[in-house]
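Why does this matter for the project? Reviewers at the last site visit asked to see concrete outputs rather than summary tables. In response, this paragraph embeds two records directly. Each consists of the residue sequence and, immediately after it, the corresponding structure tokens. Nothing has been edited or filtered.
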Amino acid sequence: MKSLSKDWITEGTIDFEYKKYILLAYLQHCQQAFGKNALYPPLGELVDHYQNLKEFNRQISDLRQMFPRSIQGIDPAEGKIRYKEDIEPDEYISTISEIVEFAMPSVKWAIDEGRSIYDFAERHIELLPLGILPVYRDEGYLMLYPDGDPEVRIYQYRLSVVAGSKDTFRALELSFLYAETRTLANTLETIKLNLIRNFPGYPNPATYLCRTNVWLPLAETVLPVSKRMLMRELAA
């Protein structure tokens, strides 16, 4: 199973064993990707699923608070009053709660595994300016130079401000332009000069180089991690 629906808990048959099977099949796919050091899209999806599970957990807790309760006693360890629900939750709510309780630690464990791979990737990806950087850096170029690959992939980046319903945030867009092969004659500096000739609208563009010292999947790991590193660099 390569993806998991956002509404996987509530859609279809509401059965704990069935939902457990669906989740474990998806987590197995994520682990297979992580085993190849491929981070995205699994890591981003897992984070979204975990946030949804937390929201489910909150809603179930709020719903239980609405049930009639009677005082059962006092917890001496925490000094809090213990309550007993006078009405038992129906089977649907109980099953959803059981699924969420099983899923949360399982998904959290997978996220931690993905983040450890992310940390590994970030340690082996170097971001550095290529040439002198101009004052204006909201637009420019990113060159990806993976380990063991003579091909340099050139992207144009643009940093923009996006207005949300409550806050504004900055977003980084990457557009692939073309690739060039690095040789003894066609150095990185030469490739940058060719880039300026091909796109004369930017006479002295901000240009960054991302290179790796280990092999990592380009689309699934090197590109998204490099993008986040560049975002931090531009925001600094």
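We now turn to the second protein, recorded in exactly the same manner.
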Amino acid sequence: MLDFRKLMVQIEQVGSDSFDDTLSARNALENGKKVFSEAIQSQEAFVQRLQADMGWTLWPVALPLEDLLQADVVPLCRDPVTVVGVDGSQIMPSHHEVHNCFLLNIGSAVITYGAKQPALLESEPRLYHRPEDLYPLVDRRRLHIDELYVSLERMLLEFDTLVTLSLRAQQRGVPVIALVDGSLIPWSLEKMPDSYQDLYLQRMSSAIEELQMASIPLIGYLSHSRSSDVVNDLRVFACPYDSSHCRDYCGDINEEDFPCSSIWPLTDRQLMARSLNFGQRTGSFLSGASVAKRLAADHRVCFCYLHVGKEITRLEFPRWLLGDRTLFHLALSAVLSQVDKGMGYPVCLAEAHHLAVIRGPDRQRFFELITRQLVSVGVSTVKLSPKESRKRTSFI
């Protein structure tokens, strides 16, 4: 339990520290706005600098695919459309519990607007308990799964569910938009063995291709994004050296002392807050994340920022969607309408989250049911580990 009397002394320091942080952030924002304005006025030079230096920076470079700021305003969607949203959660495996297993729970929402179609709100649990689930074969060796592995498998299951529901919804005869909560880029994948990375990207590409063949836009919705891809691009543009060879010029100093760090730390969302009005968006960028580069050209992840009212949100989508401007604009319009109806967050993703989330009582009941089943089939050693048992009780 927390000793709040001791904690308050540390909390009081937060106020004074945050004041200093605010001043630093304000300076970074003003500097960032100045460099961003220069990049808009000299976009050709900006892109050329990025292309010339993208192999030398300490961070991935995102390449602009459109004008940095779009003059057109995204309208609220007035056409009939079906939105499909998915989200997931998990119960992690623990050898301290009565049985070593894990559970993935995928919540989904299929909602049609402008046509009389029933909404579908449901969750689908999937239990993994077999040896091949708990010790999957990777590079001919059995892998001891951890939270990273389970999270990646959950993302793939979300993709599979999204594709199945979207294709089924398309049979209603209304255009479909597919949404996932969070990034389309599997940032943590590079921590896994190479063969698992290859298999993951194959399965991800297969899901994207099915949606592409059916002309169903795929959008990853990131609320309150901490991404700084555009800011990092501006750091390259602001670099005072002839080339942004970070290791040669700045390899022996801390990042806060880099010449380009006058606009760091700053997020793209903070940078765009005063540049965009409601319904306006930035241009689209091609992500430079190394794991995203391994996808097929049409499946490479792109992103833009859209002012949805209460925040600047980051939207991610496969590159093929930019080639179909009608579908692209429909997707943006549908997302904006979802946020408007949800009073700050897409309705379908909010509903999918509520269906997916596993709360404390659900977790407790899950393991109670596991215990009953094990006892009913005659397993005599059904008990918690001594550590877990002692954590749940106290002598004092």
